[in-house]
């Protein structure tokens, strides 16, 4: 399975956000996760779990439910962070930095 996008923590948190004001974000996030064309990292898995089970969240998940979601999502490409991956990301940022600056104005 190849990925088209790398998904960050907030996307996964939107999939479980039950606030009426978040309905559009929740729907879009769920569509993305169901598309089966994404990847994520172990760091994002950990961040989702911590945030989704936090007592500070109004849409807090039970630990078992959050763990079950993470286990399901581990079926998708999961990047393990390493020094080599970090260096490659920095190299890409350096190579394409001018594109970002020109787009931002």
Structure characterization notes:
The chain is mainly α and 105 residues long. It has one domain. Helices cover 61% and strands 8% of the residues. The chain has a 3-stranded parallel β-sheet. Helix 1 (9-16) runs parallel beside helix 3 (42-52) and helix 3 packs antiparallel against helix 4. The chain is globular and about 40 Å long.
Secondary structure elements and pairings:
Elements: E1 5-6, H1 9-16, H2 23-34, E2 38-41, H3 42-52, H4 63-73, E3 78-79, H5 83-104
Parallel strand pairs: 1-2, 2-3
Helix content: 55-70%
> What structural category characterises the helix and strand content?
mainly alpha
* Radius of gyration computed on alpha carbons: 16 Å
Can you tell me the residue ranges where pLDDT is under 50 for at least 5 consecutive residues? none
Notable traits:
single chain, about 100 residues, mainly alpha, three-stranded parallel beta sheet, 5 helices, about 10% strand, globular
In short:
This protein is mostly helical. The protein has helices at 9-16, 23-34, 42-52, 63-73, 83-104; strands at 5-6, 38-41, 78-79. Helix 1 (9-16) crosses helix 2, helix 1 runs parallel beside helix 3 (42-52) and helix 3 (42-52) runs antiparallel to helix 4 (63-73).
């Amino acid at each position: 399975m190849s990925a088209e996008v790398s998904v960050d923590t907030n996307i996964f948190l939107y999939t479980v956000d039950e606030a009426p004001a978040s309905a559009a974000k929740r729907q879009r996030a769920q569509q993305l996760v169901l598309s089966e064309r994404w990847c994520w990292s172990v760091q994002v898995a950990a961040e989702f779990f911590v945030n989704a089970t936090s007592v500070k969240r109004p849409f807090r998940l039970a630990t078992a439910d959050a763990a079950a979601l993470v286990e399901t999502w581990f079926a998708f490409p999961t990047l393990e962070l390493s020094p080599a991956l970090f260096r490659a990301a920095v190299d890409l940022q350096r190579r394409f930095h001018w594109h970002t600056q020109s787009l931002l104005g």
